[in-house]
Each structure stands twice: as structure tokens, then as C-alpha cells.
Specification:
Blueprint: H1 26-36, H2 46-62, E1 66-71, E2 76-81, E3 88-94, E4 106-110, E5 113-118, E6 121-123, H3 130-142, E7 146-151, H4 159-162, E8 172-180, E9 185-190, E10 193-194, H5 198-208, E11 217-221, H6 225-232, E12 238-242, E13 245-246, E14 254-256, H7 257-274, H8 302-308, H9 326-334, H10 343-353, H11 355-358, E15 378-381, E16 390-393, E17 399-400, H12 405-410
Parallel strand pairs: 3-7, 3-8, 8-12, 9-11
Antiparallel strand pairs: 1-2, 2-7, 4-5, 5-6, 5-14, 9-10, 9-12, 13-14, 15-16, 16-17
């Protein structure tokens, strides 16, 4: 085993510390080590190994008090503790990490930090998203009525949550996932998808204001499982809460123990206060199945295209505020989306589909224009932080994962 020596340069010592107020018990420290010493790269067998360990732990600890549903096809695990006719709070986490397997990984506790070392030196594995697995299993221990969902392969496109059993969430009141770096953020907008409701945020603010050390703030974040569940049609609010990890996806990844404990206690307090309250999204005033643009044209104007493609070559982009028509902005807002977060991918796909007519020789990015959807008026919306585009139907708002070139061509619209 390699010695870790002095790693202080890998740790952020400027962050606000909560170590004097939030301390983790020895038993929960051991639970953390047991989880994160199982290496779980995406697509790897380690995810199954962890699921089998969780099933063993839960079966031994709770017996028939916790219902276990293991989806072996999609490598997802669903747990239900207790019986309730008033709905369940739900904890969510993902099983995989971005890190490759290394020889003899060990989780080290030094001061207020968890980090991992191997024969190759410091390595990743203490953070994203083992922290959510730990928090969820501990919550199962301390909350009488609870649902838990663990998903596979989030790091390669939310594969597991994309194939979630949505019936599991029909009696869920709200979801909490700990998959945000640092110690400040409560993500209420994930990659352009609004995942909270006003009522949910008000209750969160009440808890924030109840204790000085709960000085969290709302923020926009990237894609994770709770966002995917909302896109799948989950009708209740969720958050992605900061989990106290730093240097995410790097060999120097580590977790601040007191930060993780603080976020856990915040989540537990919120569940204890609100576990029987269902925070459901309001129904759209206008049925999205009845929505149609005022004109049968792609909703990006030629003058916008000319403005953004300097010289017509596609390599002189200039960002403007919202290159969507009012019709499109109205639609996005009613679907809980923010136009500014989505325009870039839509812009590229629009231009690519019509570049010959517009006299544009090439575009700066390539995206597929193939869809599998029963509606016309398709938007191609891409999160620029990911390699894989995300597609939505502008009529029903549903995220479209499969592609069909013939379908796109049959509904192609002229600009």
C-alpha cells in the first residue's frame, strides 16, 4: 500500500468550516468506508457488487420491514421502508463513479476529510456519488417511512434513471439527492429543468432560516438523476443538495466530513418536518398536447442566424440573450424550462437542417436531427456541458432518447 504523505496541497483550506458543529459517529464513518472501498466505474461490475452488499445489509438490519426491488436488467435498486397512506419522502443516489479501478484502494480518514489512496497514490472515489449512497442508507436507519432509489451509470448519461420504474415514484412526496459539489448549493434548476415548486422552496427557506449553520443557497446545476426523473414525468419536486465533496472527477477528489454531515442533517430535518406533504407540480394551464406554434417554421429567425454566423462559416458565434421567438419562450416556460439554458443546441440543429438554404458551409458543432416521436414541431435542445445531446418534443415536452431519421424527414419544416 502506498503511503499518502502530505496531501495538503490537494485540499481546499479556504472553505467555511463546520467541523465544530457537525461530527460524524464512528459507526457512520465505517459505513462510509465500506461503501466507497467498493470500486464502481461506470458500466463496471462494481455497481452490482455494491447492490448485493446493500441488499445483504438491509435484509440483515430490517428483515421484512424494508421491501427490496432489484431491477437486474437496468442495475437499479429500489427500497421501501414502512407503510404509509400519506406518501413517502425519497432519497436518490447513483451507484457509479467516473474513476477507473486501481489496485488496493483504501479510504483514509484524516482530520475532517475522507480521501482514497491505492498502490498508485491518491485516487478518486470519496465523493460523487458515494456520498448520496451513504446518506440514503443512513436515512433508512433513522427515518421510519422512506423510499430510496439507487441508479446505475449516471456518469455516462443517467442511464439507470432514464430507465427508472416510474410507478415507484407515484406515491413519493418529494425527492432529495446529494450529488452536488461543495457545501453551499441547493440545486433547484438542473441543466435547465426546474425541479422544485414554489411551495417546496418556501419550506426549504424556512429550514435554512432556522439555523445559522444551514446557510445554503439555491443555484443552477448540471444533469443528475433527479433531473432525469422529472423529465421522465415525475410529478413531485426534488433537489440536488451539496454533498461536501471537492475536486470532483479527479484523482484528488475528497470529502469534507463535517460538510457531508451538515448536508445529511439538513436533509433529515427537512424530511422529518415535511414527510407527509406532497409537493406536486401544478398542472399546465394550457394542455401541451394542444400547443402549436403560430407558424409552421423552425422558430429561429434568419436575421438571428446571420447575426451569429459571422462570414457564414459558423466559427464566429456571438451570444445574444434569447434567440427564440415569443411562442417558443412561452412554451419553454410552461414546460418549466429556461430558454437561455437551451438555445445553443437548438440553434445548431436548426442551422444544420437548413444550412444549404442559408448558404452556410459548416456548423461549429454536429448534432443528430433524428427523432422518435409522434408529434411535429421538434426542438433539438442540447446541454453544452455534455457530449450527448438531449432532445425534447416541443408539443408534449417529453425528452426523446431514441432516434428515427425517417420520422425527422417526414416532419421536416422549412425555415
Amino acid at each position: 500500500m502506498a503511503t499518502y504523505g502530505n496531501l495538503e496541497n490537494n485540499f481546499n483550506t479556504t472553505i467555511k468550516s463546520y467541523k465544530d458543529e457537525f461530527k460524524m459517529s464512528e459507526g457512520h464513518i465505517q459505513l462510509y468506508k465500506d461503501i466507497n472501498e467498493i470500486q464502481r466505474p461506470s458500466r463496471g461490475k462494481g455497481q452490482v457488487t455494491l447492490i448485493n452488499e446493500i441488499i445483504t445489509w438491509v435484509s440483515e438490519a430490517y428483515g421484512d420491514d424494508v421491501k427490496i426491488d432489484y431491477d437486474e436488467v437496468n442495475t437499479n435498486l429500489y427500497l421501501t421502508k414502512g407503510k404509509s397512506d400519506k406518501g413517502y419522502p425519497c432519497m436518490v443516489g447513483h451507484l457509479d463513479t467516473v474513476h477507473k479501478e486501481v489496485p488496493n484502494l483504501e479510504v483514509i480518514v484524516k482530520g475532517d476529510r475522507f480521501f482514497a489512496i491505492s498502490d498508485e497514490g491518491q485516487c478518486g472515489g470519496c465523493g460523487d456519488d458515494g456520498n448520496a449512497i451513504w446518506a440514503s442508507l443512513r436515512m433508512l436507519e433513522e427515518i421510519d417511512v422512506l423510499k430510496v432509489a439507487f441508479f446505475s451509470d449516471e456518469e455516462i448519461g443517467c442511464v439507470g434513471s432514464g430507465n427508472a420504474k416510474m410507478i415507484f415514484f407515484e406515491d413519493v412526496n418529494f425527492c432529495i439527492q446529494l450529488d452536488r459539489r461543495g457545501n453551499t448549493d441547493i440545486i433547484n434548476d438542473a441543466a435547465g429543468t426546474k425541479i422544485t415548486t414554489p411551495e417546496f422552496e418556501e419550506k426549504l427557506k424556512e429550514l435554512i432560516n432556522s439555523k445559522p449553520s444551514y446557510d445554503f443557497k439555491f443555484a443552477n446545476g448540471s444533469i443528475t438523476d433527479v433531473k432525469k426523473l422529472r423529465n421522465n414525468g415525475m410529478e413531485v419536486a426534488s433537489i440536488n443538495l451539496c454533498a461536501g465533496y471537492y475536486n470532483a472527477h479527479q484523482k484528488t477528489e475528497y470529502t469534507c466530513i463535517s460538510d457531508l454531515e451538515r448536508s445529511y442533517q439538513f436533509a433529515k430535518d427537512f424530511i422529518s418536518l415535511n414527510k407527509e406533504t406532497r409537493f406536486e407540480f401544478a398542472k399546465l394551464k394550457t394542455d401541451p398536447n394542444e400547443f402549436k406554434p403560430k407558424s409552421k417554421k423552425l422558430l429561429l429567425d434568419e436575421d438571428v442566424i446571420e447575426y451569429m454566423f459571422v462570414g457564414g462559416e459558423g466559427d464566429g458565434l456571438e451570444q445574444i440573450t434569447t434567440p427564440f421567438s415569443d411562442d417558443t419562450v412561452d412554451f419553454l416556460e410552461r414546460m418549466g424550462m429556461v430558454a437561455d439554458d437551451f438555445w445553443m443546441g437548438y440553434f445548431y440543429s436548426t442551422v444544420k437542417a437548413n444550412k444549404k438554404k442559408l448558404g452556410i458551409k459548416n456548423t461549429a458543432k454536429q448534432t443528430s436531427l433524428s427523432f422518435d416521436c409522434d408529434h411535429k414541431y421538434i426542438h433539438d435542445i442540447m446541454n453544452s456541458t455534455r457530449d450527448k445531446p438531449m432532445y425534447y418534443c416541443s408539443k408534449c415536452g417529453r425528452e426523446v432518447d431514441q432516434v428515427s431519421k425517417n420520422h425527422w424527414l417526414s416532419h421536416k419544416m422549412d425555415i
